[in-house]
Amino acid sequence: MKYKVYLTGEQRQQLLDIVRKGSSSARAIRRAHTLLMASEGKTDKTISSTLHISIPTIERTRKQFCTESLETTLKERPRSGKPPKLTSTAEAYLIATTCSNPPSGYGRWTLKMLADRLVSLEVVDAVSESTVFRTLKKNELKPWLKQQWCIPKVSSEFVSKMEDVLDLYAQPIDLGHPLICFDEKLCPLIEDVHHSIPPAPKTQDKPGKKEKIDYEYERNGTCNLFAFFAPYLGWRHIKVTQRRTKVDFAYCMKELVDIHFSNSEVIRLVMDNLNTHTIAALYEVFEPVEARRIAKKLEIHHTPKHGSWLNMVESELSVLVRQCLSRRIPDVETLEKEVSTWECDSEALLQADRNLKKICIDWRFRTEDARNKLSKIYPTHQN
After folding, report:
1. Distances from the Cα of 190 to the Cαs of 86, 121, 326, 335, in angstroms?
2. Cα–Cα distance between 94 and 109 in angstroms, integer?
């Protein structure tokens, strides 16, 4: 054998890393295997049958390693063939066009529109939609996708309310001063016009079938869900109401104070800035003495505007929607029954019994984290 492979300890370790990690190209991994087996005295025939490559390929790999270097052996050489259909300039035009607003009358750029635009700008003579797609994929651009995002207004008010809520979450559990997160959610009432067809399992003669739900449905209006959540105690309660007025809010606060946490001294309540979420709502519904009695047991902390992610009950409502409400519910009575079962059903002992399992939230985002990760939303300090 004219070209014998001898590896140093460092070269062997480098090849073993390439083989074990598997992050290199397939050709580089095959060449690493070839060199390792050749250094162990394996014949070209054995290497060929093991790696399923030709003997001339093995000979070229050994020759390149012995006459050049390990790096050039593993590296891909330039290949001959047709030049790329899009030059770097044309690719830059395509990326810039994709990131711009679509023409009037269109909601987004399509592959055909992008290809036609490059031709109309005389950047290229012709280009296919598949070439446009491959170029966008290479640059990780997807003009057909949009992501909604809420960018809070930079202000001292946002920061002050955010840090107030975060400091509250960092306090230890105190049964005399329980932490309760409160929010509400609109729930549509939708009834099936036709019964659904249940799923069918696979048989020897027929494949399995999915459940079929008719597209036609009947709207029965909407209702409201008030959500109470004690994230560190593993307790939650969903109250179904027809509306979400100040009157409904006031009775929710009375229920929270007199029924759910009647033995607590003060309830630390986190909620958003909806116009009905005020102490004034208590005075519009109850006598002043009663309103003041309820108000004295509430310590309210408002989340900042566009800062609903700070309210831990949002996570619980998301679970409620996924586990219970992601279907058609025809009326309030059915909704109340289903929500009550989701909360806690001691007879059924379902997996989703949130209260029986006392499922809590491990909130780890602290004020120090906000000052580091969200430093851009903090106002500039003025001396």
Report:
1. 52, 51, 11, 11
2. 11
| Boundaries of domain holding 169 | 157-195+216-376
Residues 110 and 185 in one domain: no
For the chain, which residues score pLDDT lower than 50? 346-352
Assess whether 69 and 114 both reside in one domain: no
Q: Which of 311, 368, 313, 300 is nearest to 163 (CA)?
A: 368
**Tens of pLDDT along 155-201?**
888 999 999 999 999 999 999 999 999 999 999 999 999 988 888 88
User: Are residues 177 and 312 located together in one domain of the fold?
Assistant: yes
In a domain, 148, yes or no: no
Q: DSSP readout, 119-170?
A: HHTTS-S---HHHHHHHHHHTT--TT-----------HHHHHHHHHHHHHHH
**Residue 242 near residue 273 (C-beta atoms within 8 A):** no
φ/ψ of residue 229, rounded to 5 = -145, 120
Q: Is the dihedral of CA 181, 186, 190, 196 positive or negative?
A: negative
Q: Say yes or no: 282 and 312 in one domain.
A: yes
Residues 251 and 311 in one domain: yes
Place of tokens 């580091």: 372
Please indicate, yes or no, whether residues 118 and 259 belong to a single structural domain of this protein: no
